[in-house]
Amino acid sequence: MSDAKPNANRAGQNSPAAIARREYADSSEDEVSLAQIIQTLRKHLWIVVLLPLLFAGLTLGFNFMQTPTYEASTKLLIGEDRGFSDDPAETPNLQALTPTVVEVIRSRPVAESVIAQQRLQMTPDTLLKNLNVQPIPGTQIIRVAYRDASPQTAQQVANAVGAASSKELEELQSKDVVTAVTIERAVTGYRVGPHTLRNGLLGLLLGLMCGIGLALLLGYLVDSRVGQRK
Hints:
The protein has 2 domains: 12-64 and 195-229, no CATH class; 68-193, EIF_2_alpha (Alpha-Beta Plaits, 2-Layer Sandwich), CATH 3.30.70.1130. It has 8 helices and 5 strands. The protein has helices spanning 4-13, 16-43, 45-65, 91-105, 108-118, 124-129, 151-172, 196-229; strands at residues 69-80, 131-135, 141-148, 178-184, 190-193. Strands 1, 2, 3, 4 and 5 form a 5-stranded antiparallel sheet that branches. Strand 2 (131-135) and strand 3 form a beta hairpin.
């Protein structure tokens, strides 16, 4: 008899009706929790609204205080002294020379030549810091890009670097084995930063997350104090 009663209790707990009641109770608790969260957010709605606006405003203000940056780029085609060939067999040889040409473009003599030619008030290190030289994979083309606060200066320096690089390659060789020819001159630089709209949206999103978190934290602290008083 003593064993039959616990077994009956266990059977009752595992009955479909009991399981349904437990699931209903769990869903009710979830609904209550969700309702409490919504109520807490409504109670502290000013925080949820104010922090996103504050973060977005600070982000936009910081971006407007920054000096805009512009970029202009030119492209150089690497070839040999006998001209530019379409023979696929010769392409790997020219591509193997591309890293060397890239280093020549990034060299200090090229930077000094550009500074003297354009009469720039900067050091070679500063010019090279703002210079980006990247070979285009699978081709004999090198992209030379320069960034500056002035779109006109960015354009002029990018074109001057291309010309100075070609001249430097000629001077470094006993004969013109490798040549670099400008195939696309730089136009007026386009703005690359700061990204005001994107940063403003990120600030808004970050502020919203912080606002929701702070509102829920304040709601939890208030409920804890009320519980302790009771």
